[in-house]
Design a protein that fits this description.
- The chain has 655 residues and is of the alpha+beta class.
- It has 2 domains: 2-224, Glutamine Phosphoribosylpyrophosphate, subunit 1, domain 1; 228-437 and 465-566, HUPs (Rossmann fold), CATH 3.40.50.620.
- It is built from 27 helices and 17 strands.
- It has a 6-stranded antiparallel beta sheet.
- α10 (351-364) packs parallel to α18.
- The longest helix is centred in the last third of the chain and has 26 residues, at 618-643.
- The two termini are 22 Å apart.
Amino acid sequence: MCGIVGTWKLDKVEDAERAALEDAMELLKHRGPDGRGRHIDEDRGLAMGHTRLSIIDLKTGDQPLIDSVTKNVLTVNGEFYDYKTIRAQLATKGHRFQTKSDSEIALHLLRVHGLDFVHHLRGEFAFALYDRAEDRLLLVRDRFGIKPLYYHFSEDRIVYASEVKAILAMPDLPRVLSRQAALNQLMHVMVPGTTAFEGVKAVKPGHMLSIRKRNGRLELKEIKYWDMEFPESKAYKRKRDPNLFIEEVREGLIDAVRTRLEADVPVGCYLSGGIDSCSMLGLATPMQQSPVKAFTISFDHADYDESKIAAEMAERTGADQVVLRLKGEDLYGGPYVRAVWHAERTFYNTLGVAKWHMSRRVHDCGFKVVVTGEGSDELFAGYPFFKRDYFQQDPKASKSKRESAASDALFQGAILAEEQSHHPAFDDLCGFTPSWIQPWLLTLKEIQPLLTAGMREELSDYDPVAAIAEQIDPKMLRGRHPLDKAQYTWIKTMLEGQILSWGGDRVDMANSMESRPAFLDHHLAELATTIPPELRIRNGVEKWVLREAMKGVLPKTLYERPKFAFMAPPSRTNQGNRRAVEPLLRLLLNRESVEQAELLDPGAVDSFLKEWRGQRDAARSRRLDIILNHILGLQILHSEFVEAKPGASLARAYA
């Protein structure tokens, strides 16, 4: 796991760009504190930088890597699994390796397969590869977007990096928050492929960018090499024995966990009270044949705390459990600002702050790698909004007492909408508006009046929901079951934009800690698409196939427990949380600060805060808390990246 940054331009690399590359790598040192390397080809206009977190091949794996035959240059962030097998296969064809690194296989696979080499890569990764013979730069991101990769493109230069802050450190790039992105952030759902900043885009999951020099300018081609493709509804093998699916999922998950335990440093596990992380620990324990270090977050509010169930799983497996107990004051102040600085976008819940604390604890315990349970709900239909769509949109689905879990009420006003909402763009795309986006349609109505009059005028013709829908491939939805449509649209938006970003890589790597979500192994994902909807949710039980596959390693209480969405307690849940957030409000939402950012209307913000402080309805309070987090985050982004030079900011001062 590492940080990558670079630039490729039509003319020569200049001294200012060399210096900026060093500044950019300094901004990424949290992603790679163990080493730093660069490759500069002045005449070709190429400058590539790498900051290293050493996990595999601790002695000879420094980057950039240069192919001894082709002279191609590679910098990688992430992991390629099954690399030893691939190295052996290539060795039988005469290939010789310079390192013991997993990353080196990409250079050799390109020689053998050309651009099809991406299909032979398994893992979570984002990398830059300069193909010298073709005079071509390739930017590649893994299938689900587990690892981040951003770029700024013009006809004479492309700048790319693992984090936007490193791009903004390069010469002559404006630091401007996108007004359209600000609206999408405030409603919580980003447009796929966008960032919070004008002119800076994200390489989409499962995509590769090919950049060439032609006719005196750079040309960029976007290539999709993989997608989460569900079969047409009529193609499911509904008469197949369910036990065959259970066995295939069990074997697929075992293999996914096996590969993610490969490292030259110790590997731990994140452990919450859910099926997903408990399955990871339950499988990792017999594979490692020694107590696994398990890291658990405990909150000071019973409704949101899963540590008791996690402790039961830790005792069952003999894990060496570390419990991080967090209070409301831990989730605001400096940690909140730093989490936004690392995430480079706003968030609706302080779970990202909690995970920032956890990654720091993991680092302090001497661990660089953990296996996590992210992706399970996406593959096996675990979220309550998936269940809602299944029952509402499939006339054959039968309801049960499990349809409305007790925890659902806790998330009304947050991840579940209090009332039905629709949008024509999603109605046209899916035939219905998925339940996962409905809470954010309600949020959109609430936040528009908070914008300045100038922003409202500027955005009067912009529909943030339609912009999201336009980036989703309609071919992947035609003829699909409603549950598949709900899962696919979530995967293309919220999985990458929320779960894997401010809830995953960005706050994990903030403390030099690599997370490996085994469920997002693409072999397992492709298997999951073959499971009929009525087996994903069976008799009202979500993730039924996974539960049955992992029944032998799960405690009975957990096996029978409905899905509980992992969230941090909102700011209005107790007095401690309310007191903790007030200093941030005074610092960031005072009239002078709001006026200076020119995004929000000061009077509207004052009125909003008055309602937030006085609100007593639980669901309403949760929605207001979401909005509060987003407007705080927007103000922090302006302070950290527009007013201040990246790296000389309030977040850095809090460190």
